[in-house]
TrEMBL record:
It comes from the Eukaryota. Keywords: Membrane, Transmembrane, Transmembrane helix. It comes from Boletus reticuloceps. The chain crosses the membrane at residues 338-358. The keyword Transmembrane applies. This is Transmembrane protein.
Length: 428
């Protein structure tokens, strides 16, 4: 039985295996569609939410990864077997550069605490524009509002930075930023809500040296986000710190958020500023640092806008579909062909060899003289056996117990019958 069990278990086995069937899940598209007018969203209401989630490190940001927005499949809470899903991932990339020194003219207006500057710039003599800058201090980053937007750069966001930078002396500190998009298919790990590591989430060119800025492509998204950033700078609260000599240090909450993201302590900068000067900065800022900060901030603002929805000043997300794979345990019957083939060959060989091993059957040697126990056969047996005849003749009363007792003796009926028949044949 042990050999039979081992043999059968090696031939036929039940095996468990993992299958990954594909299912369709409803998905919320994180990136706004073409129907969303970015400049019409209530950014002054969206920005305070950005400040609050930045303080909550444990908050779930499903649909957002650094500077990338990805579709959000609606995974059923009762089913935890979903492994991954195919989604669209849109990465925000930023290109920034410095406006060349020779094309900037600064004209002050106002006096005392209200002193500000018109900053005029031109692009190779083919276009021009201007923005307003208040009194500058060292080691800060300020989003500036275009006073006169150039026709070639409606998609551009302007900053003034007074940190240390690695740049040629011919370039000043007015920064222009272009936003770009890169949408690619990606795989989302539904168990951990993380995009596959192959997704390129680089927000910048990883450059360490500043270069001259040039306008990018004026796509609808970049134009809308430039308008949105400008509306934030006007809509949020501005903080004013009085300084000596009737000057002031002014910045908005959005400026403070950007500076903190860049590792600049606004309070320390304001406390250290003793005069209206941006000389001798103590903070060094590279293009890649600045580009990453702008890209991550923009991505967070877009994600929050979708989370809030139209009723709270954001936008309504579009609903789509995602193909998701699930993990399912299944049983299958496994048949091992090798033992079956070996057993079949052994059985066939045994069938062929049996006649040669035991020989051919002889009818005369193995045929039975007595084929039944009828009355005639019993009479024939009694007549052929002298011992049986003498015992039965001595019984006067043929009761069953006496006949049974008389029939209890050792005799070979086959030999008796065969010897009797042989003697009868000799007589004949």
């Amino acid at each position: 039985m042990l050999l039979l069990h081992i043999g059968s278990s090696s031939i036929v086995q039940w095996q468990v295996f993992n299958s990954t069937p594909v299912d369709i899940l409803i998905s919320d598209l994180a990136f706004p569609g073409n129907a969303v007018n970015m400049s019409q969203l209530q950014w002054e209401e969206i920005f305070p939410v950005l400040q609050s989630i930045s303080l909550d490190a444990g908050m779930s940001t499903y649909g957002l990864s650094n500077n990338t927005l990805y579709d959000m499949p609606r995974v059923p809470t009762v089913n935890g077997s979903f492994l991954e899903a195919s989604v669209n991932a849109t990465t925000l990339r930023v290109q920034c550069g410095l406006v060349p020194n020779l094309t900037i003219g600064m004209t002050p207006f106002g006096t005392g605490v209200s002193q500000s500057y018109f900053v005029n710039f031109s692009l190779g003599g083919i276009d021009k524009g201007s923005f307003i800058v208040s009194t500058t201090w060292k080691d800060f980053v300020r989003l500036v509002f275009p006073y006169s937007q150039c026709t070639m750069c409606p998609q551009t966001i302007f900053y003034v930075i007074t940190t240390g930078i690695d740049v040629d002396d011919s370039v000043r500190d007015a920064v222009a930023v272009n936003l770009e998009l890169d949408t690619v298919p990606a795989m989302l790990n539904l168990q951990e809500n993380q995009l596959a590591s192959t997704t390129d989430q680089t927000a910048s060119s990883s450059s360490t040296s500043w270069s001259t800025w040039s306008p990018g492509d004026a796509i609808d998204f970049s134009v809308g986000m430039a308008t949105a950033m400008n509306s934030i700078s006007l809509g949020v609260t501005e903080t004013t710190v009085d300084m000596p000599d009737n000057h002031f240090f002014a910045y908005t909450e959005f400026d403070a958020y950007m500076m903190n993201l860049l590792g600049i302590d606004v309070a320390s900068v304001a406390a250290a500023a003793g005069s209206n000067s941006s000389a001798n900065p103590s903070v060094m800022l590279t293009p890649s640092q600045f580009e990453n900060a702008v890209a991550q901030t923009t991505a967070k603002l877009l994600w929050i806008s979708g989370q809030l929805g139209e009723s709270a000043g954001g936008f309504q997300r579009t609903v789509g579909e995602s193909r998701a794979t699930t993990n399912a345990l299944q049983w299958r019957l496994h048949l091992n062909p090798i033992p079956v083939i070996i057993a079949s060959l052994a059985s066939f060989t045994a069938l062929v060899l049996v006649p040669f091993i035991i020989g051919k059957k002889s009818y005369k040697q193995h045929s039975q003289w007595i084929s039944g126990t009828s009355v005639l056969e019993c009479l024939w047996l009694e007549a052929q056996s002298e011992a049986l005849d003498s015992r039965l003749t001595a019984i006067e009363e043929p009761r069953s117990d006496r006949l049974r007792a008389a029939g209890m003796f050792d005799t070979c009926l086959g030999d008796t019958g065969r010897s009797s028949l042989t003697s009868m044949a000799e007589v004949e």
